[in-house]
Amino acid sequence: MSDEAMVGIVLVSHSAALAEGTADVAGQIGGGSVVIAAAGGTDDGGIGTSIARVRRAVQRAAAGAGVVILPDLGSSVLTVRALLAEEDFADPIALADAPFVEGAVAATVAAAAGGDVKAVLQAAEEARHARKL
Amino acid sequence: MPGSCEAAITLTGDLHARPAGSLAVMAARFASVVELAVGANTADAKSVLAVMGLGATRGQRITVRAAGADAAEAVAALIGILAEATPVGG
Prior knowledge:
- Chain A is an alpha/beta fold.
- Chain A has helices at 16-30, 51-61, 75-86, 100-112, 117-126; strands at residues 8-13, 36-40, 67-71, 93-95.
- In chain A, helix 1 packs parallel to helix 4 (100-112) and helix 4 (100-112) packs antiparallel against helix 5 (117-126).
- Chain B has one domain: Histidine-containing Protein, Chain: A (2-Layer Sandwich).
- In chain B, helix 1 runs antiparallel to helix 3 (71-84).
- Chain B starts with a strand and ends in a 6-residue tail after the last helix.
- The chains are: A alpha/beta, B alpha+beta.
């Protein structure tokens, strides 16, 4: 463990409720010490994704240690990639290829334990192999 | 000094998501390999999803095993969390 900032998590979903609900669940399981920023829905609150919302979420989650972004489906990935192509963030940013809920929970726990971006990304992506039954 | 350590406790509540998270965060603080065992099933204690996947329930005996330099401390810390896990909550 170190005194340095924790890796932040950004959840990008087509639905604001899905992103926020997943952030709530992951935050509860992870003990509440990790910043989990939800970026769901379009600018007018509809179903879809918003590059502006993702940008603000990354800015909220970035505390110096880096940010791991989890997209839900399809154009969430495209929106994140478009943002990363047009903007340089000071923090290292990683985009996780992971199941949304399980990945968010695993990433949050890894970040709470003091993992770096690589460790948090790995925890998220390993979630695809976790059995729930 | 490297070593191994093991202890067991009977769960007073189901192993819900929140205590699973607490266990995984705590386990990750130790250098030792830490494993949970319930019956024939085992899980890496540092993986919250694996811990939840154990599906451990009230009344079951859960064993904490650790191997490494801080094995004894790791087992004590995890047994402490398991002892506090209550039958209520998620």
